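From the thread on structure requests for the teaching lab: each student submitted one protein with a one-line request. Submission from student K.M.:

"Model A1 family peptidase from Bowmanella dokdonensis, tokens only."
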Amino acid sequence: MQHSVRIPLNNTFAKGGYCARVHIGQHQHPVNLVLDTGSSTLAVHNGSYQPERDDALQATSLAQDVIYGKGGWYGPVVNTTVSMGLPGHRAVLDRVNVAVTAKEQAQSFIDADGILGLAYEGLNPAYDIAPYLQDKQVSPALSYPFLMDTAQHPDSVRQYREFLHQYPRHPVTPYFTQLEEHGVVANQFALLTHRSSVYQTHTHSPLEKLTSHHLNHGLFVLGKPKLHLDLYHEPFHSIKVLDDKYYNVDLLGLQLGETPKLAAPKLAADQVKGCRTNAIVDSGSTLLVLPPGLFDALMLQFYALNPGFKALLAPFQSFSGEEVGIPLAQLNLKEWPPLYLDFTGEQGQSVRLTLSPQTYWQIHAPQPNQAYFKLTTMPSWPNQSILGLPLLNNYYCLFDRSASGTGAIRFAAKRDFSGQLLGHLCQEFST
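Reply posted by the TA:
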């Protein structure tokens, strides 16, 4: 029977990205996995999961690899039991496809134990290396535990990708799709988040204190998010998902306060195959990334509104890979206007969402009494915007994959958590 499950989230392990506590294997070992609507693979660090202790593990001949903007990994695919949720309110499923990382690049998951991709099957390929295993006289011809001996595979992650991709490509059903297909939950989920950077309370705050701060919490609602009336205010504003490679949407343009609207560029002809549309909604991104031309035009509007903004925004003119803040005393958020984003709606109409100054600026980040600007661009970036947590933080965000065609994303005003729920959140991540 389908049911709906609330799962606590915390953003301290992935430096702003939201992690859920997931239990893997027969021993139900707890791991913290980053929730990412921009990918589809469930991957867990070998040392965090301890597959050698899992009597529920069933090995396969498949292997996977993923390269992120920062980091990457490769490893075998196994099947095992996965559960999520609080005691008495869990989603449990056997024979879940889990990739176990044999080798990782630095910073692949930061301090999290892995990643849980929430996108579609097209982003979750594996490769069947049975011919290679048979040639190596591995019997039975299974990728686990053979690939865990990295001494036999000295290649870097990027080099190993070239080797791996010569073998037959095999689609792997993502975890959320498996849940829905087995009738565990409905084909919907929602995210309720507050921040895109960790809220820093004091210099050298221990992880336990940061973990317990309510602004560093969130909720993941698996299945039927509209039932949770205490988490949002109606109405919902729905934008159409135009392609299910990612959660691909059509960004029409931006408007900064009352300034003239800026049209979002369309994809160039050579970008259509890879990008599909000019924007994606990506919970795994702690930034809102704009194409260079659109970003530059927006910066000029900020400067025209207030010449003093130029000096404050100077450190943030391109993505550096690291959070570097400005003194918080220099920032008066009351002077900064909202940023409006216009999309093609579910019925073809224009739908407007709002990015507040409190979310495109993150205060007390990356250090106490600092502020970090969350809009960025990268040189040679295609005409595609990555709409990450700075947008999602403003809403209760319902990803409705059951909507006609390729789905819709629905945004409603969020409510704050109850004190009782906050206590459960703290308990979940302190154990």
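TA comment: Residues 186 and 223 are 4 Å apart (CA to CA). The chain has two domains: 5-185, 226-415.
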